[in-house]
Write a structure and sequence with these properties.
Layout: H1 2-32, E1 34-35, E2 37-43, E3 48-49, E4 53-62, E5 69-75, E6 80-82, E7 88-92, E8 95-104, E9 109-110, E10 113-119, E11 126-127, E12 129-131, E13 135-136, E14 138-139, E15 147-152, E16 154-164, E17 169-179, E18 193-200, E19 206-215, E20 220-227, E21 232-239, H2 259-282, H3 286-290, H4 292-302, E22 307-310, E23 315-317, E24 326-329, E25 334-342, E26 345-349, E27 355-359, E28 363-364
Parallel strand pairs: 1-11, 3-14, 15-20
Antiparallel strand pairs: 2-4, 4-8, 5-10, 6-8, 7-8, 9-13, 10-12, 16-17, 17-19, 18-19, 20-21, 22-25, 22-28, 23-24, 25-26, 26-27
Helix pairs in contact: 2-4
Amino acid sequence: MRHFLLTVLFVLTLFAEDDINSSLESNSSVENSVKVLYTNYEETPQRIVKGEIFPVTIRTLSITQDYEQIKYNFSNQSGLKALNTIPYREENGKYFYDTFYFLATQKWAKLPDIEAYIEPNPNNKYDKTVLEGKKLNVISLNPRNNFSNIIADYFGVIEYRTTSFDNTHNIIVFVAEASRCDIANMNFKNVFKQGIESITESIQDSRITYFVVVDKKLENFKFSYFNLEQNRFNNISIPIIVDDDKVTTQTDLKPKDQSKERVKLIIAISVTLVLLLLILWRRKYIYSIIIIFPIAYIAYITVPSKNLCIEKGTNIYLLPVSNGTIFETTQELIYLQKEGDTKGFVKVKLKNNKIGWVKDENICQY
């Protein structure tokens, strides 16, 4: 037993020596690592607006060529959202000018501590460099009631269209472009409904298709945005000119108002009956020709709407635009009533009386 315990103690001592040697080698490697990267801020904003996208450029110098790439890690940031971790880089002589973009999300903000390092870094022979984050001067806007939440270098409406929504509202669909803008933050007060139909987000150039539902009495849809270059609020006005083709669609749309068509139908039937009486009384066949028109009109408005065959898995869109909002997908082949059409899309009424749009390519033949 005594020999066995001595043997175990001898083996444990050998393993302990190996661990100590390994630890000493590792510490020796860290202690011997050298600093080869030097960084400093090249450009930081003096003042930013809450909700603004802004750049921060750091200048980096490497005194070694023994690497493939320089990388960065962020930590300890506050009140910001980093929009790119791979920098936009420019080279000038022996310096790299690396630019990162951030979105100010709070009234108080601090840049992250930026850790720069090179790869590959065998045996950790090159030390990391840390550039401490700066506290930023953030201001909040005091906008008017028609502010759209848009803060940008540039913002412009390039296309719009207004159609009837229901008896008391119109729906405006517009396409807008912006630069250096958090365009997804768009929002309006005092509208009945609103939402994003499609969006392409980019730091420099963004594009959005947006819809708002407003009161029919409104003649112009006016709102403001904050222009960063001009440092002021600018106004946008969209004239409301309702299209006659009634290309409308939205959730919760009420069934089509048939009251006017019923009045027209009653008038057509009355005219037809009067003409029939005249034919019987006066026995003039000229009335037989005239009576064709009201009868044709009666036939036109009383013919039931055509049902369309919609494929299984078809997306139902809120508006007839590419990459629009999908609010329902068919679970099986179904037949829906056609309400209208526009380029590439057909307007249909769902079984729950909601109105939507399906692409032409999803309509099957039966």
